[in-house]
Amino acid sequence: MGNTVFRGGVHPDYQKDITATMAVTAMKAPEKVVIPLSQHIGAPCELLESVEVGTEVKQGQKIADSSSFVSAPIHASISGKVTAVGDYNHPLGRSLPAITIESDGQEKWDEDIKPAGDLESLNQEEIRKIVREAGIVGLGGATFPTHVKLTPPPDKKIDLVIINGAECEPYLTADHRVMLEKSEEIVFGLKVMIKALGAEKGIIGIEDNKADAIRVMEKAVAEEEKITIAPLHTKYPQGAEKMLIQVTTGRIVPSGGLPLDVGVVNHNVGTAATITNAIREGKPLIERVVTVTGAGINRPANLLVRVGTLVSEVIETCGGLTENTRKLIIGGPMMGLAQSTTDLPVIKGTSGILALTDQEIYLAESSPCIRCARCVDVCPVQLMPTSIAQASEHELFKRAEKLHAMDCFECGCCSYICPSKIPLVQWIRIAKAEITKAKK
Amino acid sequence: MDNKMIVSSSPHIRAIESVQSVMTDVLIALFPVALMAVLLFGYQALLTMAISVATAMLVEALWLRKRDFFSDGSAAVTGLLFAMVLPPASPWWLVIVGSAASIIIGKQVFGGIGYNIFNPALVGRAIVVISWGGQVAGNVWSQPQPFAFGADISAVTVATPLASQAEALEVNLTQLLIGNVAGSLGETSALALLIGGIWLYYKGHIDWRIPGGFIGSVLIMGIIFGGGFYDNHLMTGLFHILAGGVMLGAIFMATDLVTSPITPKGKLIFGIGCGLITMLIRIWGILPEGVTFAILLMNAITPIIDNFTVPQQFGGVKKSA
Predict the structure, then answer these.
(1) Average pLDDT over residues B26-41
(2) Is A342 in the B-facing interface, judged by CB distances under 8 Å?
């Protein structure tokens, strides 16, 4: 099955060699963390009533939550005192409410944190509750609250859990390292998910440019009857859920549908390992592996970073930025978000911090479309990006909708490949926003 | 440092390929064709190509008030392609007028690169055919004089194989493959055109569907309706592919990025349409050759083809008609 390929896609310069062989090292707990109240898709959290400026908090203590189902609570990532509550720069590009905690240097864990017990003794509802209370969200970057994905609607039967170890974004090696270093935890996490969903089997998909990870994971599942490893062709966006499901199972997620429509739930490898932590030690999600790389970073690394650590401090730990850094990106180079400042926190979804130089970003002015159809050829969902972009440019949003603009998941292949350097995805995003607005 | 950061929408990395590199690849693909033309028709072919390319680049630079003559390379491509569809010993003024018309009327009046509806080189050819028929049709087709670089090829002219059945019976398929027959500067050597086509295919600049549909439908039409004036119908079909402008048209003209469809299905329809119209003109029309007008007609309906062949999106369901 590993030999199936999806249509379209691109082969960017992967640049993973920079950090692929670097073991994850824990970054020293920072003096100060800034923890945003919205770190996931869904309702933002609200500060707990017991927490205000001046409150002493312990490491792992819940500090914010939401009554909404699609949300995940937020925990203090260091022990110390709350010194500020207010808006702060956020990777989304605007200021959002955040809590600032100054460290007491003790790294004292919250006393309530304790192991949840054997997996055998936990029922599905208990697992979901543990995952929710641990504040776990998808660590691949989309940050969808994980407990929601472990709670399928009663009319949908889930038979398969796919763990995404494709890590198809160039530069990033966080998932790669987690697979090498936490293979047993990933497999255990997957078993937890299989149980919570009542699924029959699990597949861990890994791109074949990570041969060592495939080997290590194969070994980790050797004794497992329900779990298999699927080596995947290295092609971006192999890790997109629809593509991943297609190549591993042959199932096609319907347009506008979700993986659960074809009996599948996808989770990232890092998420699986984090679930294991929550079950075995009761630890909430307060730190994650971040790949800090790009030609603009003096000493690239894979770092275990506390949520709320300022990007400026992470970069400092990695020897600072080079003079010729032109772009700072949170996430991968294909779908990540460019930032204007380093004064913003690492959040749960921060898989990478990239500092790119001119040679890497290949800036060029855009020129008129020459209709080469490269974008049509590479689109993994078979759209006509240039036509949608053109409709968007002329504010013909009905036409953009007819051309299936809403099926675009913004992987960026079209903009990447365009010889005219037209920001196609940007135009399509505008169309999508307008179409959504018109529906309301 | 912070205020120097570029903030823009993802993706943040781009492929190296540019319009200029695409156009350069097309020029490289045309090199074997140009070389063959010089080997067959000598210095006059070289002169025709040089004048045409220089005129196209100069006119475009003047029109756009740019100092960069090569710029994105598209004017050079148009100029070279225009030379390819002329009689090898065309008068210099005709080359200049036609090449300038290709750029101005074929391309710039529509808004420049990317906006033209019709293949610019073929617009130029259509204009000179209509305006100076005597110079580009009839008794103008020089007999090739291989390896005689300095020879004056305009002295001996013959009818093209397509125009005269007698001439057609004179040449065999091998001659057509190599190109040692009378015809337009760049159309005679199927072999050189194929080499160029393979390069373009390898670089991903052409899709098999347009040349495939074009050549395939010419072959089938040739076999069925060609009349069997060669030894048999199959040979007649092959003759129709190799004689005249089908190879040049299918590989270099119909595949012009700007003026052909962008959908996979649309490309196939476009190619087949070009082939069908070419053969309609060849067999039942008053002109011996129909490639130019076939492609121009299909260019005109390219937007309609694209509209009717929007691909089914991933996971989409066909709407019942």
Answers:
(1) 97
(2) yes
